[in-house]
Amino acid sequence: MALPDRYVIVDVETTGAHPVRDRITEVAVIRIEGGVETGRWETLVHPGIPIPAMIQDLIGITDEMVARAPAFADIADTLAGWLEGCVFVAHNARFDYGFIKNAFARVQREFEAPVLCTVKLSRALYPEHHRHGLDALIARHGFVCAARHRAMGDTEVLKQFVAMTGGAFPAEVLARAVVKAMKAPQRPAGLPEGSLDGLPDACGVYLFYATPEAEPGRTDTPLLVGQALSLRAKLTAWFAAAKGKEAELAARVRRLEWVETPGELGALLLELALLKSHRPLANRIPDGDAAFGLRLLPNRRRPPVLERVAIAGSDPRSWVGDVFGAFRNRAEADNRLRELAMLYRLCPQRLGLEAGTGPCDAHRAKRCAGVCASKERPEEHDARLLGALGSVGLKAWPWNGPVVVAERNEDNGQTAFHLLDAWCHLGTVADAAALPALAEAPRAFDLDAYRLLSRWLTVPANAARVQPLSR
Residue 343, exposed/middle/buried by CB under 10 A (0-12, 13-18, 19+)? Predict the structure, then answer.
């Protein structure tokens, strides 16, 4: 038989997705031996911590329901008896396995078992389908679920799925799929069991930490912050392929946290915000907070004729036409000015790129029209400079005012509405009704957000999703 001879189908409900920080609130098992069910058992579990309101609404298990339930220590012996000698089968199996392993560890007990993941089994047997969550399996195969998001209800669905696969495929095909389904993802030794299997197949931002938990009263600085179109796919692949410095970083990771977002733009904006607020140790931190533009000083006889104008946090509509460009640092601005000097025969001295008086080196090389050698009037030079500066301004904002980008995750119903104006991110809300009030927020230019938005909106499919704000 391609399926294990003895296995136990397991599902746990929990207070959250973190196998160390969160706790089990319900557990259910169905034991199968020789293809026949030999028993089933379920119980609520007192988690010892409050159940978040969002989890109560989603699952239906409340603090009142578990108030008189046994603690995990009280059921540990019984659960160990059900699991003994069996392959551990679950959906996103190492998530459930991680919670149970950590729960046993908290009562000073060891737990080890071979693990078979039914998500991986479904992917191996039905590669033509994109979704392999429980809801997708129920809809695709017509399974019956008496209580979705309750431990025994979900476990019963998995029993139907495993039984169906046993008769739907040749033994050698099923055997290869089972091997894939029992292969554990590579993870750093310091990460708790189940950390990667709890990751959703959704957009979001992830944070690596070097400590298992933050000390009370303080916030840890992350090792790394990043974003992904699929948190599960990216991080599973990242840890599996980590080499060199990435492998050294992976070895330091003790905790993985993440925030789901309804779409890519939300992940990009959140990543930028976290990079600036947390300043992770292994990231290159954006430095657009010191951004400046250039202003031409009219009628100035002596160089330089350009002054730097701080633009970070200001309203772009207040300086369009007067301030040119947006630069992170002097080197970036000087490199752009050198390009303009070559193209328009401008004087490096007058631009402030070189010190000295008299004919500049560029004039001697016939690359400067000669304002420094009295061969050209300053007004003529500066008129040419003003025309050249027009090419380094911000891209024109394509809309007349504020616009909205809506994102939605169809799997979990999560929504986000991003309000943008003049390349500024005015904010993000989950309810479109809050947008008009958000539009009253002042525009504050951020160079990093500008570059992020200008890249994202260059993609035609992204730009097509933009809608003017309806007031």
Answer: exposed
Nearest 5°: the CA angle 345, 348, 351 is: 105
pLDDT digits (tens, 9 = 90+) for 398-409: 998 999 999 998
Instruction: With CA atoms as reference, report the closest residue to 197 among 108, 128, 102, 111.
Output: 102
Strands (E), 159-305: 204-209, 224-228, 255-260, 292-296
Sheet with 224-228, edge to edge strand ranges: 224-228, 204-209, 255-260
Taking only the tens place, the pLDDT of each residue in 23-49 is 999 999 999 999 999 999 999 999 999
β-pairing verdict for 87-90 and 6-14: parallel
CA distance 180 to 174: 10
What pLDDT, on a 0 to 100 scale, did the predictor assign at position 392? 87
Contact 133, 411 (CB under 8 A): yes
Q: Is 470 helix (H, G, I), strand (E, B) or coil?
A: coil
276, amino acid identity: K
Q: Are 420 and 456 in contact (CB under 8 A)?
A: no
Give the tokens for residue 442.
Answer: 């002042």
As a whole number of Å, the CA-based R_g of the chain is 30
CA–CA gap between residue 155 and residue 49 (Å, rounded):
25
Q: Which residue has the tokens 């035609």?
A: 460
Of 51, 40, 118, 48, residue with least CA distance to 79: 40
Taking the complete model, does pTM exceed 0.90, yes or no?
Answer: no
